[in-house]
Amino acid sequence: MRLAGKVILITGSCTGIGSAIARKCAKEGAKVVIHGLDEKLGENLVNELGRENATLIIKDITAPNAPQLLVSHTIEVFGKLDAIVNNAAMVASSDIESTSMELLQKMLNVNTIAPFALIQAALPHLTQSNGCVLNIGSINAWCGEHNLLAYSISKGALMTLTRNLGDSLFRTNGVRVNQINPGWVLTEREVLGKIEQGLKTNWYEEVSDIFAPAHRLFSLDEIAAAAVYWLSDECGPVSAQVMDLEQFPMIGRNLSKNVKYST
């Protein structure tokens, strides 16, 4: 059990990557705090994991009292806090013309400011437990697609936050801060979103080689497995690092003449 005895708070964990991380952490022996906005799905996950292993809190992550409420709930239920996973995120398409100031501010509030605020609120407890933070970013942090402008900006800022705090907090408080940047993951929301855009129900079985050399997207379980390493003691003193979980290099990609641009 790689996380035995640890208490881990995971934001945005009622669905998608967050729920997969919660399941994997519980399987590895951790107690988990489930957070999100969908109470029914959250309750189902808590029942699945067992109420001795999981608890649920429903709260808008951008609410002024949300960070302290999440931390206080964790301490009240489980008595300590060993790690937080900043997974809750807002995803919306926008480019230079369609990115309003309101949209950009909301994106930053959810994807960058809320993680910072939670780390700030949790820091005394993470210091006491020699704990860690894992931020869930995106490969779009490096540049992003033209129609993911606001989202990419927010994830780029999160990456800088990770590297800055990962250095300073480890030196002063013994708290590690790292980040994983997933590529294209087959989440429930991704499947439905592409269908709503007009693609076939099995679109993910026919993804072009240009996006998926493995001929498939990443599974939720694969992302969760990576998260466990960064949350575990196996990670050692590694801090301020960002790991891209992608099928091809983000810089210097070699596109051979055999690459298929369509299926």
The biggest sheet, with number of strands, parallel, antiparallel or mixed sense and barrel status, is:
7 strands, parallel
Order of helix and strand elements from N to C terminus: EHEHEHEHEHEHHE
Going across the biggest sheet, name each strand in turn.
3-2-1-4-5-6-7
State the end-to-end CA separation. 42 Å
- Which class best fits the helix and strand makeup? alpha/beta
List the uncertain runs. none
**What percent of residues are in strands?**
5-15%
> Oligomerization state of this entry?
single chain
Quick one: how many beta strands? 7
The helix count comes to: 7
User: What gross morphology would you assign?
Assistant: globular
Using the CA coordinates, give the radius of gyration.
Answer: 18 Å
**Average pLDDT across residues?**
94
Helix content: 40-55%
Structure description:
By secondary structure, this protein is of the alpha/beta class. Helices cover 42% and strands 13% of the residues. Strands 3-2-1-4-5-6-7 form a 7-stranded parallel β-sheet, sandwiched between helices. The chain is globular and about 50 Å long.
Tags for this entry?
seven-stranded parallel beta sheet, 263 residues, globular, alpha/beta, 7 helices
Brief synopsis:
With 263 residues, the protein is α/β, with parallel strands linked by helices. It contains 7 helices and 7 strands; from the N terminus they run βαβαβαβαβαβααβ. The chain has a 7-stranded parallel sheet with strand order 3-2-1-4-5-6-7, with helices on both faces.
